[in-house]
Amino acid sequence: MSDSLPARAYFLACDPDGGPVSRRPRAALLVRAAAVTDLVLRGNLRDQRGHAEPTGAAPTGDLLLDDLLADLRTRSPASWRALLRRGKNDTLQSLETQLSAAGLLEEGSSSILHRKVVVPSDPTRVRDAHARLDHALTAPLSEVDASAAALASLAAASGAGMSRSDARHHVDRLKELEKLAGPVLPALRKAVAGRRAARIAAFSGGSGG
Fold first, then answer.
1. pTM of the predicted model, to two decimals?
2. How far apart are CA 125 and CA 121, in angstroms?
3. Phi then psi for 106, rounded to 5 degrees?
4. 78-79 and 45-48 as β-strands: parallel, antiparallel, unpaired?
5. Are 159 and 23 in contact (CB under 8 A)?
6. For 35-40, what is the mean pLDDT?
7. 56, 121, 123, 184: which has the fewest C-beta neighbours closer than 10 Å?
8. Count of domains for the chain
9. Is pLDDT above 50 for 74?
């Protein structure tokens, strides 16, 4: 559980000082994209003419991933973009529930308004997630596995777990890592662009009234 791709994405999206997830809408997209990508890398999903198709591979043994896979089997085929947008908040909440049950998250309070939030029980996991990201961005490409390459690419695309300035600084390396990221990355970019366009449209409509 703690080393699944969505779990690693979650800790990457947490505040670097061990605080809660920041920018939850972006983090939800990243976690959902990481879960779908994990299924691709494990051989449980494949691309079929731009759509996600479950394979006959055995269940993963990870509750979050297997629940997602079971849902996909009832709704497939689905485009990768639709798959990312559908249920992303539920996926984030389900992951938090499972991480809490495993003792990896605990109750805390936000620095603003002191609302109850969940935070990593061991900040080392957050530091480890960032260390693994740094390794993917700086180590020889031959030393970076597909899951690390995918997560770095997804973090850059989502804006969660990697700042825009870092993404620009590592733009050449990210282009190399994208080749290992799989079919989810282009869909994530479209989903992020769609969210941005919707916010701009909402702002323009509100200011023009």
1. 0.90
2. 9
3. -140, 165
4. unpaired
5. yes
6. 96
7. 56
8. 1
9. yes
